[in-house]
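Could you show me just one protein sequence together with its fold in token form as a worked example?
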Amino acid sequence: MPGTWPIKLTQKANKADAIFLAHIIYDPYAELAAKRVYSQLEADFLCGHPYSLPKITPWFRGDAQLIAEGVSIDGGNSFLALRVLGSTQPGGATIQREREQHIATDEDEDNGGSMGLPSKRPPKYADIIDLTDDKEPDHGSSWLDIEDEPFIVLGKRRTIIDMWHERDTSTNRQNALKPGDDATLSTGEFYGSGKDTGKAHLYASLEMESQGILRDMWEALRYLQSLYPHHINPVEWFTFDNGFCSDIEPKLIRFNSINSTPSLSLSIKQWPYIDYDNFQLRGALVIRVTTEFKRIYIVEIQRRIKEKPHKLNILEEEPISGLCFILNDDADFENWLHDLLSEIRYKKGIFKKILGNCPGYAETFAHRKSKDDTVFCESVDKNAIKNMGLNL
């Protein structure tokens, strides 16, 4: 695809490393930074040094932010970072991430051509793993994925497009040791045999930093529009004052307060406020996704920020499901939206309680994280519009 950086991942390469691998291939600055680390390690090894302390420089240029864990030193004037927990990603061309999916077949069963490929070992038992760097993993041994703490991505994420190719492979080519036969695991390169040592593959999945559900939902839909321009065009937000707009910065529709009624509970009276003490009303984000055959509407409610249960000083948004719907007649949109935003106040944001009032078809959806998301809420948006008949 023109203007993209295509890379092809091996079977055991982790997809979270795609950006780094692409820069090594296409960005001379990143290639040199990686070669410097390798050359320092190689030089220390050839000189017989028992350890190496390589100087590691950034692998991309430009401003960046880091999340680091460490200790304060020098009377609080300095900070010693002991572990990097997150960072921003470099901007640049769209990365086209390719991988072959191997589909086992029964062809060539009798060709005797076993390659002794290592088998992936399911981490079914081990809370404690015997991991060593004193010896290398055996050729043909099993290997185990060991996931470290998720790495947090700050700010805007790099655009990545996945492409998968299927290739048939003979089942006879998978004649390796049975997974789980190895007592010890090593992260080194395969070397020799008979050491009873398997291969450990350590990796950290990418965890995105949420910008708030409303912002995440809007940005994810705009991202999907860029990926599927023939299926989605355009994505717009709506207010009664502005109508439908495709501006980058969306606006919210403010809820009205509820007139004081003795029969209503205090929690219902307070619900329309994002901050009741300061009389700050909640907002609703209303989005229209226009497709070739229909218009899909999504409504999200602004959440209060509260402290996470049993975790002091950790804040999170209150859980509220989103709403997606299509109308039998789009001319009914504004009247239905008026009724919806009025009635939902008395249901304290629970859309399931008013689904039957929609003059069309409506469904609620939850906001669950997915490790396959390129941007936050990507899978949430996909599932929401899939419920309305658009499968991306």
